[in-house]
Amino acid sequence: MATVPLRDGLILSGVLFALGLVGLLVRRNMIFILMSIEVMLNASGLAFVVAGARWQQPDGQVVFLFILAMAAAEVSVGLALVLELYHQYKSLDVDAASRMKG
Amino acid sequence: MMIVFYLAGAVAIISTVMMLTRTNAVHALLYLIVSLLAVAVVFYTLGAPFVAALEVIIYAGAIMVLFVFVVMLLNLGEQVTQTERAWLHSSGWLGPAVLGGVLAAELIYVLVRGIRVDYPQAVVDPRQVGASLFGTYLVGVELASFLLLAGLVAAYHLGWRKAERSENR
Predict the structure, then answer these.
(1) Among candidates B80, B160, B99, B116, which has minimal Cα distance to A19?
(2) Residue scoring higher pLDDT (A21 or A97)
(3) For residue A41, is pLDDT > 70?
(4) What distance in Å separates the CA atoms of residue B161 and residue B156, rounded to the nearest whole number?
């Protein structure tokens, strides 16, 4: 099996992470912000798997499993907050909820 | 395998860019699913078939279905898409995009300038992953179960508060 260079895997991971970061900064819709966070988590997981493949250790995949569990918990809470935000402000604009205590 | 890796990586990057520039949430979700499936192919080419399967099942399956449910529950109409388009067309996106691009370029520069090491590639099979997960990382598994339980309770709590308020109204 031909080898994929460590460098190229990490570059892909870095580009995906930067795209997620840009999405997080640019978008104002709560759902898009959550999706950008998913992209960033996935990119960091990709970096772990690439490193695990480089040294042929299962540790990288194990850390990816933890990231997966964390992403699932984060998304469930985040989407519950999205529903709450929408019912309270009738909008998904995060700026609508920028003040504390409603 | 090399060409598959680069193709899947290109698909992942392009579909992520498409996701970020959509104004309709459902279209963006579909692009995000394509991106996650492409990353699953990348995992497979890296010799991690177990994680590739989990990426498809949990990320592209469970988590994205959750997103689709919420988007359909909110029932966003054409007006929201118009608002989104107005936000995107304002000059607000340029600064963050340039700064993020600079960070990505720096990262690529560092990686390209680094020493390139060739290494033999082998498949790390699920048996090894499982032995490591439930051996070395057993405490981590317990902590992850705490985290998932906390997420479950928090999501239930947020949903329950809303139901109670609408009853009082």
Answers:
(1) B99
(2) A21
(3) yes
(4) 9
The proportion of chain B whose per-residue pLDDT surpasses 90, expressed as a percent, equals 27
The answer to whether the CB atoms of A26 and B140 lie below 8 A apart is no
pLDDT at B150 over 60: yes
Tell me if chain B has a CB within 8 Å of the CB of A9.
yes
- DSSP H helical segments within B62-137, as ranges? 64-74, 78-89, 94-113, 126-133
Does the pTM surpass 0.90? The reply is no
Does B147 reach chain A within 8 Å, measured CB to CB?
yes
Half-sphere exposure (Cβ direction) of A97: Cα atoms closer than 13 Å: 17
B:30-69 residues touching chain A, CB 8 A cutoff: 32, 35-36, 39, 42-43, 45-48, 50-51, 54-55, 58-59, 62-63, 66-67
Which among B12, B59, B67 is the nearest to A16, CB-wise? B12
For B78-101, how does the pLDDT look when each residue is reduced to its tens digit (9 = 90+)?
A: 777 777 777 777 677 777 788 888
Q: In sequence order, which residues have a C-beta less than 8 Å from that of residue B85 and are 6 or more positions away?
A: B23
Helix (H) or strand (E) holding A65: helix A59-89
Mean pLDDT, chain A, whole residue set: 87
Task: Point out which residues pair with A93 in neighbouring strands.
Answer: A29
Q: What angle do CA A58, A62, A67 make, to 5 degrees?
A: 145
Who's near A50: CB < 8 A, 6+ residues apart? A6, A9, A10, A13, A60, B46
Pick the closest to residue B114 from A6, A51, A2 (CA basis): A6
